[in-house]
Each structure stands twice: as C-alpha cells, then as structure tokens.
Design a protein that fits this description.
two-stranded antiparallel sheet; about 220 residues; mainly alpha; 2 strands; 8 helices
C-alpha cells in the first residue's frame, strides 16, 4: 500500500500498518478486533441457547420465547419451504419509503412496530477531514441479538488500536476539539450501568491527558 500522508487521511495513516497485514477470512465480510469478538460472542450465545432448548429450562419467559425463535431460525427445511413470505405482511410498510420524506413520515410507526429500519442515518466526524463532519448512511441492522463488545483496559496493549499513535496524529494535525473516554469498566467495587464506570473513565481521561502532553500537545483547563 502506498504511504498515506497524515493530512490526507487520518484513519489510514494511523492504521496503515495494520491494514497492510489484515487478511479477511473467506467466510466473513470484515475482519478486525470487533469482528473476532462478535464471532466469539455469537458462538457462546449459540451454545447457551442450544443448552436451554435441549434442557427446556428457561430463566424467564423472555428467554423461553427467544429459544422458540432460535429453533425456528435453525429450521433450514422450513425456511427453504416458506422463504420470505411469512414476513412480507410485516414488511409491507417498507414499500411506502420511496423517499427520505416518506422515511421521516413513517419512522415513528417503524419504531413502535419494532421493525428494523431499512437504513441508519447519522452525523459523524469525517476521518479524512477532521475539521468537518459527514452524513453516514448504513444498511439494515441485523435481526439477531446484538453481539456487543467487552470492555477492556485503556492501554494500547489491551486492545487493537495504538492509542499513542492516534493521539500523536491528532496533536500533529492541530486538533483542537474535545477528548473523552467513551466507556469504562466497573472497578474498585463500583456498581452501575455496565460500560460506564466513573472511576475507569477518570483513569481514561488521565491516560489521554498524559498522551497529549507526551506528544507535545497542550491541555486547556476549563
């Protein structure tokens, strides 16, 4: 891969070495730390559901219903016989969404009927031009349970990204926006909403501050 300049593409500049080495498995559309984690979580969930369905012992009514749907999903002969037909009556509303205006008009109905949105629209930082944001459009979400991720420590060695290189790139390009740790583990006996530990997020802030100063950046106090 041709060497990318930091001012042209921040994301590729930071991850270029990883991208050069990356190999996407033949049976997967993507590869990376989150993809591997998702696969491991899916295998774990499939094992748990197989055990529940076999024993017919369910912790609650929700998981009993989930097991019923799980067994339907595994019934390959049934799926081949009926195809998409059983779902068509529930998806009829999607035919009304020919334009963005139609999407906006029916978004509430889609949400209340718990129908997966045909697309997701969001505003995110443009990683090729960090002074601007861009509109991102993604395809339909999956209908299977969310294979979330596991919180890890802040150090680069605990994850798949080099935090020092990321902060270094932001300092070198004159980034003047805000930094914040998005998530945190529950540590030191703290309890609360998983993924939002206050103590660990405070450690994350201190870690980011240290990386900024180590790379010649300045922390402004408000």
């Amino acid at each position: 891969m041709e060497k990318i300049r930091i001012q042209d593409d921040l994301y590729t500049y930071v991850n270029q070495a990883k991208l050069d080495e990356l190999v996407i498995p033949d049976d997967m559309p993507i590869a990376g730390g989150f993809a591997a984690l998702n696969t491991d979580v899916e295998k774990l969930m499939i094992g748990d559901f197989n055990d529940m369905c076999k024993s017919k012992v369910y912790p609650n009514d929700y998981l009993e219903r989930a097991c019923t749907l799980f067994m339907l999903a595994k019934d390959v002969k049934r799926k081949k016989k009926h195809g998409i037909k059983p779902a068509l009556k529930h998806l009829a509303i999607l035919k009304k969404l020919g334009t963005l205006r139609g999407y906006n008009l029916h978004a509430k109905e889609l949400i209340l009927k718990n129908i997966a949105m045909p697309l997701s629209i969001m505003v995110e930082p443009n990683m090729k031009d960090t002074t601007h944001h861009c509109v991102m459009v993604q395809g339909p979400s999956v209908i299977l349970p969310d294979t979330s991720f596991e919180e890890s420590g802040h150090l680069s060695s605990h994850g798949s990204l080099d935090m020092n290189e990321i902060i270094k790139a932001l300092v070198e390009t004159g980034f003047t926006g805000y930094f914040r740790p998005d998530h945190g583990r529950m540590i030191w006996g703290e309890t609360g909403k998983p993924g939002y530990g206050l103590f660990d997020r405070a450690l994350g802030s201190a870690y980011i501050n240290g990386l900024v100063e180590a790379n010649g950046g300045v922390i402004e106090e408000n």
